[in-house]
Amino acid sequence: MTDLRRAEKERDRLLTAERAARAEAEAGSRTKDEFLAMLAHELRNPLGVILNGVRILDSIGSPEPDAARVRGVMTRQTQHLGRLLGDLLDVARISQGKIELRREVIDLRAIVDFVLEAERHRLVLKSQHLDVTMPKTPVFVYGDPARLQQVIGNLIHNASKYTPEHGRVAVTIEQRDDEAVARVSDTGAGIPADQLTAVFGLFTQLDRSPDRIQEGLGIGLTLVQRLVKQHGGRVEARSEGLGRGSEFIVTLPLAPVAEPTSSFVPPAPARRKFHLLIIEDNADARELLKFGLGLAGHHVDVAADGSEGVARAIALHPDVAVVDLGLPGMDGFSVARALRAKFGPSIRLVALTGYGQSDDRRRTREAGFDAHITKPASVEDVLAALPV
Question: With contact defined as beta carbons under 8 Å apart, do 142 and 103 qualify?
Fold first, then answer.
């Protein structure tokens, strides 16, 4: 065998080994992403039950101020856990190419207002000063409102988290040429110069405080960067070093038209009283939804599986059936088709599912559902899905 032939065989062997190693690494990455998605999905179900329980306790009320404070802490921590799980699930979906943007023309100022309403309590608890600077005229972008909320929300959440009590958090929106610019800055822990790019890495946790007390999985900024990139924009981190604060700058293309396609107003809860049937195999989730909807003045019956749900619907003729898609035996899609065939348009069908992408919503519509709620489902979510 000539030297040339031996060299060719060795090259072929190395190429084969490289392809095998790459295939194994890709398979491992897919397995990891699938596991993260499954983990986040499964943990959201008990989380939703806990959050509904706390909200029901809030609605009942208590004369004891200590009880109200404890409920407030439970609500905030449960919401924080929900944010972590949601981000974890979204990062896994992005890695798998499963995130689809539901774009519309929207005023970026409305996104900021919405997020600040949700995050203001954190700033107040830490006695932090908030500066907001926005133009008087709209700054229209073409984007997914829910995903842009995640982007701005994560940045404001991080700014508050890494800023001490009595510090400052600033949010600025401006229009520059054909771009919209959102800046979130703080007077907090800062970022070393050699880590300004690393902060966007998945599961990256920079040790920005001496006692390392800040919570988080290190996925929020990864999600921000990937969502901004999907919108055709870019995000940049700036800091003058540890202890000197930081600034995150999001740049998005302006919308090609100057009229919003959505008023971005959340649906108002229904005012009429309805007869509802909850078909859900998770006993705790089922009973808390029944209790909470009952407190809102509705008559509620329950069923623990699909076959029982169809039988009870035929016997009771409810106005609305709220159906978990992942039922044992007869799944939620089969239940919807059966109820639609029996009642036609006279019954409103609401799907409960851990999946909320465009393809998931299309499947529920095709099965006959009128509304789609992504878990964890709150009593307020169900109320908003009822007929007006």
Answer: yes
With contact defined as beta carbons under 8 Å apart, do 266 and 384 qualify?
yes
166: DSSP letter: T
The domains of the chain, with CATH numbers, are 3-95 (1.10.287), 104-253 (3.30.565.10), 275-385 (3.40.50.2300)
Q: What is the bridge-based pairing of β-strands 371-374 and 348-353?
A: parallel
Report pLDDT digits (tens) over 68-78. 666 676 776 67
Instruction: Give the whole-angstrom CA distance, residue 271 versus residue 368.
Output: 24
Question: For 45-118, where are the E strands, in sequence order?
Answer: 104-107
* Contact criterion met (CB below 8 Å) for 329 and 305: yes
The end-to-end CA distance of the chain, in Å, is 83
Can you give the pTM of this predicted structure? 0.58
CA atoms within 13 A on the CB side of 219: 16
**172-186 confidence digits (pLDDT tens):** 999 998 999 999 999
**Residue 8 DSSP code:** H
Output DSSP code: residue 196: T
Distance of CA 366 to the CA centre of its chain: 24
